[in-house]
């Protein structure tokens, strides 16, 4: 239940992906950036920058060591 509380406190994007253990989540915004957040502290852990248009989707890999993003710029990126 912590993650839903944190999502409301992070207005810079919308929550799109949660880690399996609920310790972090990723948001996407129209600024071409995905951000990974600590679900307990609400601190931004890191930004994923490189797309040249709005990011459509972000997902965690099954082993949670990587993220994938797709964008309206026609690219998919593995981070």
In words, what does this structure look like?
It contains one helix and seven strands, in the order αβββββββ. The chain is mostly beta strands and 79 residues long. The strands form two sheets. A four-stranded antiparallel sheet has the order 1-2-3-4, with no helix packed on it. The protein is globular and about 30 Å long. The model is unreliable at 1-9 (pLDDT under 50).
The proportion of residues in beta strands is: over 45%
State the low-pLDDT regions, or none: 1-9
The main pleated sheet reads as:
4 strands, antiparallel
**Helix share, percent:** under 10%
Radius of gyration over C-alpha positions, nearest whole angstrom: 12 Å
**N-to-C SSE string, H for helix and E for strand:** HEEEEEEE
Overall geometric form? globular
**What strand line-up does the widest sheet have?**
1-2-3-4
Structural category is mainly beta
Structure, briefly:
This protein is mostly beta strands and 79 residues long.
Based on the model shown, name its key terms:
single chain, 79 residues, mainly beta, 4-stranded antiparallel beta sheet, 3-stranded antiparallel beta sheet, 1 helix, 46% strand, globular, disordered N terminus
Outline the secondary-structure elements.
Blueprint: H1 2-8, E1 14-18, E2 24-28, E3 33-38, E4 44-49, E5 55-60, E6 67-71, E7 76-78
Antiparallel strand pairs: 1-2, 2-3, 3-4, 5-6, 6-7
